[in-house]
Amino acid sequence: MIELSFQKKLWSSSGDMLLKVDLAIRKGKLITLFGESGAGKTSLLRIFAGLLPPDEGRILVNGTAWLDTSMKINFPPQKRKVGFLFQDYALFPNMTVKENLLFALNDKQDKKTVQELIEIIELGELQNRKPGSISGGQKQRVALARALVQKPAILLLDEPLAALDHAMRVKLQHYILQVHREYKLTTLLVSHDIAEILKMSDYMLILDEGKIIKEGIPGEIFTHKEVSGKFQFTGEIIGMQKQDFIYIVSILIGNELVKVVADETEASKLHIGDKVLVASKAFNPIIRKII
Amino acid sequence: MVHPIQSGFANLPDSLTDAAYVLGKSKTTTLFKVLLPNIKPSLLTGIVLAFAHTIGEFGVVLMIGGNIPGKTKVASIAIYDEVESLNYGMANTYSLILFSITFIILLVVYLINGGYLKRFWE
Question: Which member of A126, A172, A255, B46 has the lowest number of beta carbons within 10 Å of its beta carbon?
Answer without folding.
Answer: A255
